[in-house]
Amino acid sequence: MSQSVETTKLDTLAQELAAIQQTSSKRIALLGSRHVPITHQHLIEMMSYALVLSGNQLITSGATGTNSAAIKGAMRADPNLLTVILPQSLEKQPRESQEQLQQVMHLVENPENDSLSLGEASALCNAEIISRCQQLICFCFHDSHTLLQTCEEAEAQRKVVTLFYFD
């Protein structure tokens, strides 16, 4: 039994090392909290800009804060390498986000989730984003339950997960 566990850990480690060392472009999901200080938003924007400028495809959602900063950076680098998946329809997004989202070439709406709470719709949206990526970068707080659950789901699917905490 312990040999099976050790083999699984070695397989996981080997997969993670291979993903980290991969030099070709990747599909990277960048998600995070809406409640982000402006200085952190600038850092997230620069990170997404650099990731896309390096040829990576960036996948995010449409919320304010982290996701908005990721969109801004990716749009500056190469709008064609950005995909934004919304938890609900565009009309259900905050007014301040709608103008930015209308500029996104690859925008996926989920109007079938309009009757759900934002939390329920966000969990479904995050699951879709995880299914499309190879790696997840997440910015959250220790009490960001939906985002932390998304990270756990990504790890269960053997995705490389990088988690940054604001607190």
From TrEMBL:
It comes from the Bacteria. This is DNA recombination-mediator protein A. It comes from Merismopedia glauca CCAP 1448/3.
